[in-house]
């Protein structure tokens, strides 16, 4: 069995993104409450929601100890922005790290959002020259579905 690290990375990349009810990073560990969802059930519109966006970034050895810009945006299905956060992070080289090994940085963004309509939304994460989109749905709950049907609406608006 090989223990050699993959050091072929030439730029930082997004490893994964998790949507959750709440999250925080403490001492390099991610703590998640109600995580891993891809659907919100709305009881009314606009639907107020507290949510967390947790992102893991794999950073190559040569990108450590330098500032890396990041942008996280929440957008509706038409691309209209509901929220946007911009910043940067620096990953240091811990003394016990193997030279050349990629390292992980985790970032959490907690926010309160009011979703104005039902449908597809996405979290777009931009890192240097790359971009990844993570879609999710805002779907009607039973009460809202009843109201929409009573008004003759399909619930997809």
Summarize the structure in short.
Helices cover about 5% and strands about 55% of the residues. The protein has about 160 residues and is mostly beta strands. It has one helix at about 140-150; strands at about 15-25, 30-35, 40, 45-60, 70-75, 80-90, 105-115, 120-125, 130-140.
State the strand order across the main sheet: 3-9-8-5-6
Structural class: mainly beta
Overall shape: it is: elongated
Q: Helicity range of the residues?
A: under 10%
Separation of termini?
54 Å
Helix and strand sequence: EEEEEEEEEH
How many beta strands in the DSSP annotation?
A: 9
Strand content range: over 45%
Output the number of helix runs. Answer: 1
Measured on Cα atoms, how large is the radius of gyration? Answer: 19 Å
Low-confidence runs: 1-7
| Sheet of most strands | 5 strands, mixed
Mean pLDDT: 91
Describe this structure in words.
This protein has 157 residues and is mainly beta. Helices cover 6% and strands 57% of the residues. The chain has one helix and nine strands; from the N terminus they run βββββββββα. It has a five-stranded mixed beta sheet. A four-stranded antiparallel beta sheet has the order 2-1-4-7, with no helix packed on it. The longest helix is centred in the C-terminal third of the chain and has 9 residues, at 142-150. Mean pLDDT is 91; it is low at 1-7.
